[in-house]
User: Fold these one by one.
Assistant:
Number 1:
Amino acid sequence: MRYLLVITLLLGAGLGAILESGAADVFLEATRPDFQKIPIAVLGFRDGQLPDNPGSRLTQVLKDDLRRSLIFSVTDPAKLGLTLDGAYGAQNVLFKQAVDNGIAVLVWGQVAARQPDLVLDGLIYDGVKQEAIASKRYVGAPPVLRQMAHRLADELVYRYTGEPGIAKTKIAFVSEQGGSRELYVMDYDGYGPRQVTADGFLSLMPRWSLDRRHIVFTTYRSRTKQDIDAIELATGKRATLVSMPGLNITPAFSPDGTDLAFASSNEGNAEIYKLSLRTKTLTRLTVNNGGDLSPAWAPSGRELAFVSDRGGSPQIYLMSVDGSNVRRLTFEGDHNAAPAWSPRGNWIAYVCRGQDRQYKLCLISPDGQKRIQITSGQGVDDSPSWSPDGRHLVFSSTAEGKSHIYMINSDGTDLERLTSGGVHHSAPAWSPA
């Protein structure tokens, strides 16, 4: 991950304009141990006489997004005596005071009504350059006010890292409400869950397509078969991709979206298959007396991690994309499952069970040389899925009794519960950026 050192020259200095980068960018590795978060303060959003205080809500959503980005260190400007005087434009005295207090970036703006929409104008001031570096305007209906804040947060992450943020991403998951388990999609911070399927039975194991338009999942819609379907989120249109006899489970799109890996008991024993979505060619990748399932693609698309009990207990294995070069990756513990390869390729997250007999989340490097456990405590932790920036994971856990969805940093810090209500939430899948 890279930190954009702010030497970029930006066109125009008028605060009302949208400024664009016009010079070369310089990046520093932000994943280095000595990387220091960028101090930032959100001064607030003026909202006049609009009902429901949209400015306050915007401020809080933006602060939370920036905190979760792990790029910025969010400072409370009030504690430093930094307050806007109500004006929208530049306030040089205030900016100098902020910079003197170590603030590198300031954000503020206003929300106004333009019936039937709201207009958000956000301004970004860079303390190093000592000038406003961007002005962004977002227009939308009142229900998408949070999305405007997410977009502004991602704009900040992109400007200072050169990489997409995660504030606009989504999480698909399984929820039981009313006796059936259906697919839902919510914002990355748990806001606005929306039901996707309504089969009245079981829809399980969702995974996103690269373009975020489709979700593949195992469906029991027929009650007698376990097919793998794809559903288009915008229209609800469905297509059955796999309908072989036996179980058809744990689908996963390849990184380029051209292949689908999955497990099937079509020939009696659970094996890993690869389906070309272009030619419909089906290739069996594993041949073994043990059960093989849960394929997870490496970001390169050249390898797969999967679970097999061929050695007597469920363990993580790796193989090349053609099924060759199979080797065992995990040796510690008697139950290791549900692998998820990180977007940067340097870690594989999985469910591990150690001597304490608790199912927790572990990370292991693909060469097996490094292994760390990142969750602890009571309850079963399951189904890890990486954020597209590789800094977070979502997973399900029964730590509080009922199964809920949680977010955690990849170093095991900042655990945050995302779901509420219902009787069961599980199998989260984080969307691409």
Number 2:
Amino acid sequence: MDRIVDRVRRYRSDEESTSDAPLATDGGHRTGGLDLGPEFVQALPFWLPAGLLVALFVYGAIGWNFLVSLTDWSGLQASYWPLDFGMYTRFFERVFAQSGDHALSWLPAPLADLFGRLLTGPIEYWSFRNTIVLLIVFTVLTLIVGLLLAILIDQQIRFENTFRTIYLLPMSLSFVVTAVFWQWMYNPRYGIINSALETVGLDFFAVDWIGAAQFKLLAVIIALTWQFSGYGMVVYLAGLRAIPNDQFEAARVDGAGTIKMYLRVIIPQLRAATLSAAVVLMVFALKAFDFLYVIFGSRPGPGADILSVMMYRTAFDTSQFAYGAAIATILFVLALGVIMPYLYIQYQRGDL
């Protein structure tokens, strides 16, 4: 009986301490969940200036950009009136008008005539289309290559750290360095890619990678995949190393082969790693402006133009600041569309 009474007392003591924990006090008075006591005041000089600067130069700039996109400001003279969504209407009218024609005439045409005929029309359609294609194909391809590299490294091979460093090294390079490097590789006359293809008898694959419109975007995706597959490898390798060995052994005892074990047991447990890596890679895809600008300048043409390059060209080459601001806002909404679902999932899991 004494033991039961002692347990009840300890339980009530723990419950009272838990219920008091979220409530902060200020001089003996409870202030709810927000601690506004002396520690809060002492911390203000450390975070308030940085917070105000971020609010002004990041969120303030985003708000000002949206305000400009609602005007018809062009040229050097600023004009903030009238405000409407005319720039957004202009952009999407051109995007969807061209895409409708496309869907009807795309499949039947021979490949060569196809690209020659279709790489015409409003640049808005091609920029939007190329951005979406780059976002999806680059992310999926990088995740696949990163997963294969991680599985290879996870086999306890010799010189594991050396291979891991070699695969991860390209990510440390800037877009500018990567662009110059691949510009040399893609050179149609003395580039190593065409030289290697001609050496092994695959001359028909030796094309003008960054000169022919139909191959520009593919060349960009291959180069960016090379740069970021090491990041995918690191994320997946961490996920593989976190899976308990018991599950591998249980799968083997049940008679699962190597491929079946990866498809049914291992890869399904890498969903969290895949999600986090995909979000980061998509953000990198949206930031590929530097890479394209170094290779193609501000006018890459319909074959490789993306929204970020078009935004820069519209705003600073032709001085259509309102239209450029509208394109920047659309790009920002795309980035939010990538990040917000991830944050929501993390919030649902209680990780935020």
